[in-house]
């Protein structure tokens, strides 16, 4: 796996046998700031990244990994808690775990606006960092931290899936499922399985779609909003292998769950699972069934009613292409 900016910075510094304290003075910056950069918690300005590259004789290797985006908008107290937890994992508390979760929530929203590529390096670094802390934590906070770690790994897997690095995505999603099981969090395990179904759809593999989405649907603890989406997307897979009756049964199942979903909000870790989003996937399912007018209605309505910050999201491309196809066939 490619190294991140923080990992390369740390490697180059240690290869030159320079302590954090000495190197920070040469930049000059505080040692705490250098520690945050190496941990992947924050990215320096470009001119500072160039200075780091020069001081380490990196020949552009470090600067090439620089990203202009600060992915972790935590306040001072939250940053301090995260940094303390990294240094002292055995003393982690719930507020530090919440800070890890808040940082990830901000990254998820950025994905809707920016797409996966600008986020990959920092997301991967932070997932590795949270996993490293988890390995050293026992006691009452381990399960809660495992849930947050699973979500971090799952999100990194999603970004790799969006960017079509399918093999790495599948590895991360399988790891996320395992950590979610330790956390006894069915919603996280189900979402990781769902993303495997998404990868199968991008690979034009309808049988694997059915397996992935039905695995997500049947995951113990899956939220009803997740089950609706899983049933609809498994239906699309069945439709694409000409098993129309199975597809229609699953669409009926999804319709029967919709009333239940209206009583509870989707889980925060799958905030996008709104009725509008479900219409998009229903549109693809009806397109696969040859119900072109229904597909046009669902896809157009779904796309028109997405929240503003999701309107241009990279993941909407396949739905816009589906609408184009359905319109042409209608």
Automatic annotation (TrEMBL):
One of its GO terms (molecular function) is DNA binding. SMART domains: HTH_XRE. Residues 9-62 form the HTH cro/C1-type domain. The lineage of its organism: Bacteria, Bacillati, Actinomycetota, Actinomycetes, Pseudonocardiales. Pfam families: HTH_31. CDD domains: HTH_XRE. This is Helix-turn-helix domain protein. InterPro entries: Cro/C1-type_HTH, Lambda_DNA-bd_dom_sf. It comes from the Bacteria. PROSITE patterns: HTH_CROC1.
């Amino acid at each position: 796996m490619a190294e991140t900016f923080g990992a390369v910075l740390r490697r180059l510094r240690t290869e030159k046998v320079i302590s954090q304290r000495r190197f920070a003075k040469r930049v000059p910056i505080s040692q705490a700031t250098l520690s945050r950069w190496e941990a992947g918690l924050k990215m320096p300005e470009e001119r500072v990244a160039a200075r780091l590259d020069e001081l380490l004789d990196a020949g552009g290797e470090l600067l090439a990994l620089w990203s202009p985006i600060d992915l972790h908008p935590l306040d001072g107290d939250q940053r301090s808690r995260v940094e303390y937890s990294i240094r002292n994992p055995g003393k982690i508390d719930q507020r530090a775990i919440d800070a890890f979760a808040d940082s990830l929530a901000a990254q998820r929203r950025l994905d809707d606006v920016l797409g996966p590529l600008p986020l990959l390096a920092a997301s991967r670094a932070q997932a590795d960092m949270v996993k490293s802390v988890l390995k050293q934590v026992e006691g009452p906070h381990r399960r809660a931290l495992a849930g947050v770690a699973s979500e971090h790994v799952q999100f990194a897997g999603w970004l790799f899936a969006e960017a079509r690095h399918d093999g790495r995505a599948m590895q991360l999603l399988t790891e996320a499922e395992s950590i979610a099981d330790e956390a006894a969090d069915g919603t996280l395990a189900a979402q990781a399985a769902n993303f495997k179904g998404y990868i199968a759809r991008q690979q034009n593999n309808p049988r694997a779609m059915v397996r992935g989405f039905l695995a997500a649907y049947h995951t113990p603890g899956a939220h009803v909003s997740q089950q609706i989406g899983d049933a609809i997307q498994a239906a699309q897979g069945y439709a694409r292998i000409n098993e129309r009756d199975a597809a229609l049964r699953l669409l009926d199942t999804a319709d029967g769950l919709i009333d239940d979903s209206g009583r509870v909000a989707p889980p925060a870790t799958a905030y996008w699972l709104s009725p509008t989003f479900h219409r998009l996937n229903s549109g693809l399912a009806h397109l696969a069934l040859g119900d072109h007018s229904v597909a046009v209605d669902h896809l157009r309505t779904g796309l028109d009613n997405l929240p503003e910050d999701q309107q241009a999201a990279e993941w909407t491309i396949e739905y816009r292409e589906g609408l184009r196809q359905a319109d042409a066939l209608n």
